[in-house]
Amino acid sequence: MNKEDLTKEIDKIKASLEVHEDQVKDLQHDLKTATQRLEDCNKPKLTNKQFAELHRVIETSVENFEFNEVDNYNTEFGMEYDGKVYLDNIEFECHADLYEQIIKDVESLFGVADESDDEDASTEVN
Questions:
Q1: Residue 13, Cα to own-chain centre: how many angstroms?
Q2: CA distance 34 to 40
Q3: Is residue 74 a contact partner of residue 91, using CB atoms and an 8 Å limit?
Q4: In Å, how far are 2, 29, 76, 92 from 6, measured between CA atoms?
Q5: What pLDDT is stored for residue 114 in this prediction?
Q6: How far is Cα 109 from Cα 123, in angstroms, rounded to an integer?
Q7: N or C: which end of the chain has fewer CB within 10 A?
Q8: In the 3-class helix/strand/coil scheme, how is 32-44 assigned residue by residue?
Q9: Taking the model in full, what pTM does it have?
Q10: DSSP codes of every residue in 13-34
Q11: Would you tell me how many other CB atoms lie within 10 Å of the CB of residue 15?
Q12: Exposure class string for 64-78: b at 16+ Cβ within 10 A, else e
């Protein structure tokens, strides 16, 4: 093979590689989609109305939380050389209170089934 033949061969291989890269990307996307569907098939399903209500309850719960209370935060101050005091660090410490409030509000929206109820429901024949 001469230089021209080798250049043509390289170009052909590069073109073939590009085509296969697109196919691999498509296959990876298909695999990701199928994997997500497999994960989702065992999840409990909510209707659009239930999901909207869940969204509303969480949003309301967060909106009603007292983020303005100073005791909810741990703060650290610093001082510059010219005597100016500045807020060096602030950390929200009441995350447990927030998620407990959200859980309480969500529980008031839905009934919680026992595990035995779930097993009975899955073995029922319609």
A1: 41
A2: 10
A3: yes
A4: 6, 34, 68, 65
A5: 75
A6: 26
A7: C
A8: HHHHHHHHHHCCC
A9: 0.52
A10: HHHHHHHHHHHHHHHHHHHHHH
A11: 10
A12: eeeeeeeebeeeeee
